[in-house]
Amino acid sequence: MSLAFMVFLYLFLIATALVISAIGDILSAVITLSVFGILLATAFAILQAPDVALTQAVINSGIVTALFLVAFSQTERPPCYDKEEEKEE
Amino acid sequence: MSLSNLFDGINAPFLAAGLVLYISAVISGEWYFKAPGERVRFRVLVAAASAGSIGILSSGNWLLFVFFLEILTLSLWSMISMKEPRAALVYLLSQLAAAGLILVGTAGVYAHTGSLAIGPVPEPWRVFFMAGFGIKAAFPLLHFWLPEAHGKAPSPASALLSGFAVKTGILGLIRAFPEPFAPLVLIGTVMAFFGAFMAVFPRDIKRVLAYSTMSHLGFMTAAVGAGSGEIAAAYAFSHAMIKGNLFISAGIVEKTFGTRDIFALRGSGRLHFAAVAALTAGAFFAAGLPGTASYLLKNSVISSLGHTAPWWQPFMLTAAGMMAAGYLLNITAPLFFRDNSKNGTPKHEEGGNIIFAVLSVTILLLVIAADSFFPSILHAFRVDTGFTPASDKLEAFIASAAAGLIILLARLRLKGIPEQGLPDIKICLSMDEGPLYAFNRVSGCCHPGRLNTFVFVALVFLVLLMLTL
Amino acid sequence: MNIRPFLFRITALFLCAFLGVMLFRGIAAMPPKESVTGPAAHYLERASRETGARNVVGAILFDYRAFDTLGESTVIFTAVCGISMLFSRRKFHRSSSGLSFIAKRGIGIMAPFLIMYATVIILFGHISPGGGFQGGTIFATVTVLLCVVFGSSFESSYFPPKTKESLESGGALLFCGIGLVGLAAGTGFLSNLSAGFPAGREGSLLSAGTIPLLNIAVGMKVGAGLSAIFYSMIKMLDTTNDYREGGPIR
Amino acid sequence: MITLSYVTSVIIFCIGLYTIMARRNLFKTVLGLALMESAILLIIVSSGYIPGGVPPIEPFMGPAVNPLPHAFTLTAIVIGASDIALALAFIIKLQRHYRSVDLDRIRGLRG
Amino acid sequence: MTLVLAIVVPLVAAFLIPVFHLARKTLPVSLIGIMGLISLSASMAAAYAGWFSPEVSLLGGWAPEIGIVLVADRLSSAFLLITGIGSGAALACALEKFGGGPWRFYAIFFLLLGSMNGILLTGDLFNLFVFYEIFSVAAYLLVAFSMSWQALEAGLKYLVLGTIGALFILLGTAFTFMATGILNMALLSEALVSVPRETLTAISACLVLGLTIKTGAFPVHFWLPDAHSSAQTAVSALLSGVLVKVSIYALMRVCFLFFLETNGTVFLAITVIGSLSALGGHLMALRQDDIKRLLAYSTVAQIGYILIGVGCASAAGAAAAVFHSFNHMLMKMGLFIAAGNVSDEKGTREICKLTGLWKEKPFWVLGFTVLSAAIVGIPPLNGFMSKWFIILSSAGAGTVIPALVIAAGTVISAAYYLRVLSAFVSPGESDQEDPFKSSPRKVRSKIVSLTIVGSFAMFCLALGIMAFSPFSREYFSSIGRTAVDVGAYVGLVTGR
Q1: Which residues of D touch C35 (CB under 8 A)?
Q2: Where are the domains of chain D?
Q3: How far is CA B248 from CA B354, B368, E480, in A?
Q4: Same domain, B463 and B403
Q5: What residues of chain D lie within 8 A of the CB of B451, using their CB?
Q6: Are B6 and B36 a contacting pair, CB within 8 Å?
Q7: Most buried among C111, C209, D54, E478, by the most CB within 10 A?
Q8: Partners of E58 in the beta sheet?
Q9: Smallest Cα–Cα separation from E180: which of E165, E193, E166?
Q10: pLDDT tier at A77, thresholds 50, 70, 90
């Protein structure tokens, strides 16, 4: 694979990492994390590691992002129902 | 832990002193403590303390020495805490620090010489032994616990404290520095004078006696510094007897009149001579008048300094000796002054059976008398009891004049000193005032609770590791 | 006084940069490797003969260093057990929210193919890239998809939490069972061909002794585990949607 | 080419560490953890790369790449995922009590 | 053969618990008790095997260079003994307190047990990382088990710091793998000699930081007081007594194998960390008014003592560290169980409110006194002897400051333990008979926990006396020798 493509890939990786750390809104940071995961999977593919690329794509971009979104929506929601739930416990 | 060295030259006087003291303490304990529970507790603690002392005297290596030292400290701590927990805490912490320092010194000796046996300490580790035994023997700046512990302990316990516990420091010094060691002489003389000077001010009898213990310890340290361990041991024996008697009789005075303040006890001797008799007799023997054992011992210490010592050291020692007479006079003379009937009839506080008190005091007085009137006992401890040569007489006279002047001056100038005399270090471990409170406020920020500060500290630690490794 | 956070960030940035420089110096100091050295060379040469597996990474994961994989799947088991412990007390609301009809129908068609794709990845772990972890996770993504599109009650009717738990512990026990068989055969825990497992024809589905079995075990564990994690987290989210739309269905 | 990947992975590692320290939102901390995790994965995988290598599937068509790092990366990815899942679970439960994910307010245990 | 069982039996027990749960709602206490006994006997068998004939078991039948190796020598069998006794006591306390109800707690407990045995027995660096990860995840969950907001916050902080530590350990492992291509610890100790200087600094810095975060030494100790004080009684006893010791074992094993010849300054760094922890732990404990936080900071200080012992890089130092970790396990578990029961009984954890206990619960207070006297280092008990051995080894290694720090630590710890004891003994307001409070809520007395605290106190006394006999000293110095003797370890693994 040509060096130029690798340089572009790594620069894009660093860019997404900076976006994840710098951006204020959590939702877009999580989406950027899944983009970061996919880019990392392509980097692994280029480094001749198909197993790792598949795992990275599925786990870090798949399940982890899904968990992030679920957790984010749990905490963002104004827990109006909480009072009712508190007394149930 | 061979018993063979239990009876060698140095240990014998300590053993004798310990024996007599523990017997009289147990007996006076029967009288001093009213509640039966307290009496049982005191007997158990005295048994533990005597076991510790036997262990100390017969231990072959430094580790066992510290082992039994801490057992002795523990039992004395719980004795003091029967009456005054805070002073007991100060005592325990200082003695634990002393034991820790000696432990470190022992580890150094083991690393240096490969054996733990008690013996002269090699050069680099001497400072630990001096510091450790310094706290034990109340060197000038490390003495903060002495007035607190001795002053506020129940009198049989403070008899044991002054009689034996402090002497273990001297025993350690004798073991650790057999050959002459100049700094010890310096510390000894300073301590003797400082103790005597501080003893003049307090109005509480027991605090005066505590400071007098300090000054006598100064004499013993000077003797050890001068290389004559036997004299120090003999001095320890006679001082143990004297101090034991003084503390127990002070206890009798306190029990019968309910207070230890010499101003309040003014003229009480006329009303109830029996209670005060023991105190006056003890004071007479302790004052070091010519002919009594303490005089002989003081002179032998001063003469053992030899001619190498600078001129002011023998002078300060004799001055301290004379001041002993001064401050003892301070606490006994007012008892017989004309009573201006301020404090009414003496309040009889019903302690245990008074017979026990009288018995314990008489035992001590008998031993002191024997010690003074039959110098042959001192010969057994290889103490030269010749009178001081003529040339020193002039020096002795000047020293006594100086001592008298200092006492007079102090008495007049510092009349209004509050009860505890010069402010001692007031250590209190309650969280609401004192050093602990300040430390509490300062160290509040040591655990901020913010996650990113924790990570920041971890990163700083990592960078330091990167740099050093 | 807002100078403190700014100062804090600058020093943090500087320390991170310094750490990066030290790490990079550590890496740069190493001589570049032209060929594979050490145990990896052994794996490359003799993996197919000693384990019968074509995929060397699969051979390492499930035969040479199978103990690591046991540890690895235990990490997931702990995480799953812990998360369901954290969310166990919340009362379980069966809720049936879901996306629009078009999404449901589209996913309805795709779901079987996804599940079949996951089983292919698991079963062909020792021949082509893939294996227990990847297949299990794809299966978990399928359940996530069902949860999101059809609502957690629909998904829990197909894959009830009880079966997920039993699937997970069953996979773990299968893994340990295979290991103990090797131990019983006397050639050490988790040993493959040397413990009498059939090597089978090179490259065929039923080859390479225990590796496919271990793949299936890990696939069960990872799949059931990750979907259990997602399920225990998402069931709280569903209650909120229904609450707004018209009261939760008790 | 490999030193390039080492440089990027070290940079991403430092970015992750910086996010954990400098940001006040708990999610950013977990995102930082994920970034650090991915950076280490990149380091391990690129350490096994052979210029002109071939994926380590049995009929090698050339010098095969070192398979050992791939096995470790697989394990590390799954461990990282379970860590992040646990962290998110803790965040949800903690948000219930503190009503916020701001690190300055989650300081209940102090002193 | 027995080594693998020590790891696999607890794991299988953990996997079986959900299956049993499916069969019956709440598990019978006897079932969990039997499982506990079996797994403890498995780990004791491994300890026995490792003590008398150091044993190597090749996993999957592969040679050490190829596959993973489990090694049991005297150092690991000593720590196996510590974890066995500690986790047995903690399991007994938990069973008595919770009964069979929370089955997930016991599943995670057995996973923790299996992973602890894994760390103590593994001979492979990456396998150590994997088991360390199970160990940490299980620890985060046990801390957060009581579901109170303090426990959850402590669990989260412990998780984030623990994960950062694990990442740095992974980074160190990656660096060692890149430099040498080997992962077996024994072969690595030979291969690390030829590694260039910068890489060695990076490796040692990352590994030392990761392991120090896990042990909770001073600069990075922030998670330890929160986690140990907000966890349940049995869990905090387990955390303080056993979990910390396993991290210390990992630190010892990694540092002695890798950095004994190649990088001497690591041991200097460990001594500095140890002295910092000892001082910092004691000073911070002095200012606490919550009894469990006080005990947690005292753990930080005692870890400092152990690290000072490890930092001496000598056989005597290692032996002193092992002896002190054994003593500390006994003392701290007893203290935590006693403090936990007392504070649960009174409903508060403030020291100034835990008054009047001498009349209500004399045995607990007596146990607490003996154990705190032991941990302070009062002569007849074992704390004094282990403190003495550590001072001896640190003076032998030429460093005086740590010895002085330990001496100062004795004084400070005496101060704060006496503050607790004086509060216990002082007559509380509950003396005047309060008709409502005392009579109805007769909490059933905790026989098992009381016997545990009592037996630990007796054990301390016996060890204190026994440590004088040359017989027991020979045991512990042999542990120290095997820990430091890298050549024997390598010979054992590679069979040369």
Answers
A1: 50, 63
A2: 2-52+65-98
A3: 12, 14, 53
A4: no
A5: 26, 29, 103, 106
A6: no
A7: C209
A8: E69
A9: E193
A10: low
β-pair partners for D54: D64
Task: Work out how many domains chain B is built from and give that number.
Answer: 2
Q: Are residues B54 and B88 in the same domain?
A: yes
Kindly state the tokens that stand for D62: 């050339």
CB of A2 less than 8 A from some CB of D? no
Any domain includes B60: yes
Which has the closest alpha carbon to A62: C79, C133, D33?
Answer: C133
C101: closest CA of chain E, how far (Å)? 36
Nearest Cα of chain D lies from the Cα of A14 at a distance, in angstroms, of 6
Closest CA to C65 of D75, A56, B121, B398: D75
Does residue B314 sit within a domain?
Answer: yes
Q: What is the pLDDT of residues B48-101, one digit of tens each?
A: 988 888 888 888 888 888 889 999 999 998 888 888 887 888 888 899 999 999
Q: Which residues, listed in sequence order, are joined to residue E57 by a DSSP beta bridge?
A: E70
B444 contact residues in D (CB cutoff 8 A): 111
- What interface predicted TM-score (ipTM) does this complex get? 0.89
Beta carbons of B463 and C8 less than 8 Å apart: no
Q: Per-residue pLDDT tens for E231-242?
A: 988 999 999 989
Q: How far is E57 from chain C (nearest CA, A)?
A: 7
Query: Which residues in C lie closer than 8 A to residue B463 (C-beta atoms)?
Result: 15, 18-19, 22
Contacts of C11 in chain B (CB under 8 A): 456
Domain boundaries, chain C: 1-29, 53-246
Q: In this structure, which long-range contacts are made by residues B74-78, counting pairs with CB atoms below 8 Å and at least 24 apart in sequence? A: B74/B48, B74/E378, B74/E379, B75/B45, B75/B46, B75/B48, B75/B49, B76/B45, B76/B49, B76/B157, B76/B160, B76/B161, B76/B165, B78/B41, B78/B45
Beta-carbon separation of C72 and D79 below 8 A:
yes
**Chain B residue with the nearest C-alpha to that of C25:** B466
Contacts of E335 (CB under 8 A, 6+ apart): E295, E368, E371, E372, E375
Question: How would DSSP label each residue in E331-353?
Answer: HHHHHHHHHHHHHHHHS--BGGG
Return the pLDDT at D1. 77
Closest CA to E308 of E263, E261, E251: E251
Q: Which fold has domain D2-52+65-98?
A: Helix Hairpins (1.10.287)
Q: pTM score, two decimals? A: 0.90
**Nearest Cα residue to E164 out of C99, B38, B457:** B457
Q: 3-state DSSP call for residue E222? A: coil
> For residue B272, how many other CB atoms are within 10 A of its CB?
16
Distance CA E105, CA E17 (A): 10
State the DSSP code for B445: G
Helices (H), B181-311: 182-199, 205-225, 229-257, 268-271, 273-286, 293-304
Tell whether E101 is within 8 A of chain C (Cβ).
no
Q: Is residue B429 part of a domain?
A: no
Tens digit of each residue's pLDDT (9 = 90 or more) over B429-456: 555 556 666 777 777 777 887 888 889 9
- Which candidate from E153, E183, E288 shows the least CB-CB separation from D109? E153
- Which of E185, E52, C163, E411 has the alpha carbon at shortest distance from B429? E411
Assess whether B439 and B391 both reside in one domain.
no
Q: Which domain holds residue B459?
A: 435-468
Contacts of B460 in chain E (CB under 8 A): 219
What is residue E56's three-state secondary structure? strand
Q: C81-117 burial, b for 16+ CB within 10 Å, e for fewer?
A: bbbbbbbeebeebbbebbeeeeeeeebeeebeeeeee
| Nearest CA-CA distance, residue C56 and chain D, Å | 6
Minimal Cβ distance to D40: which of E130, E141, E170? E170
- Nearest residue to B410 via CA among B161, B197, B122, B128: B197
CB–CB contact A33 D46 (8 Å): no
